[in-house]
């Protein structure tokens, strides 16, 4: 079974991998290709693909445990959503505030 967390983490850390390994991880997690399809596409064995995926998973989970980019992103997104909810509950319809919150959301 594919690890959904690894698929999300590719957005944060994918560029830190060598091109070939990143391509293999993206084909597996984002394009939902089989090991055989990936092996044929990159010219290595299915076992080679499997080994690359397992090594990549280990590396990407290690990166997140140290840097916590996805965790921080989710915390900030959740905080922005809570601020918007409070503003709406208090019937504060200041377009400038909502625009600024959207600007922050787009930067994270």
Task: Characterise this structure.
This protein has six helices and no strands. The model has no long low-confidence stretch (mean pLDDT 94). It has 108 residues and is an all-alpha fold. The protein is 79% helix and 0% strand. The chain folds into two domains: 64 residues, Orthogonal Bundle (Arc Repressor Mutant, subunit A), CATH 1.10.10.10; 37 residues.
Q: SSE layout and pairings?
A:
Elements: H1 4-13, H2 19-29, H3 35-42, H4 46-67, H5 69-89, H6 95-107
Helix pairs in contact: 1-2, 1-4, 2-4, 3-4, 5-6
Brief write-up:
The protein contains six helices and no strands. The protein is an all-alpha fold.
Helix content: over 70%
Flag low-confidence runs. Answer: none
Radius of gyration: 19 Å
CATH topology of the largest domain: Arc Repressor Mutant, subunit A
What is the global morphology? elongated
Instruction: Count all strands and give the number.
Output: 0
SSE class: mainly alpha
- CATH class label of the largest domain: Mainly Alpha
> Which superfamily, in CATH terms, is the homologous superfamily of the largest domain?
Winged helix-like DNA-binding domain superfamily/Winged helix DNA-binding domain
In round numbers, the mean pLDDT is: 94
- Total DSSP helices: 6
CATH architecture of the largest domain: Orthogonal Bundle
Distance between the termini: 29 Å
The count of domains is: 2
Q: Strand-residue fraction?
A: under 5%
Give the H and E element order: HHHHHH
Q: Give a short account of the largest sheet.
A: none
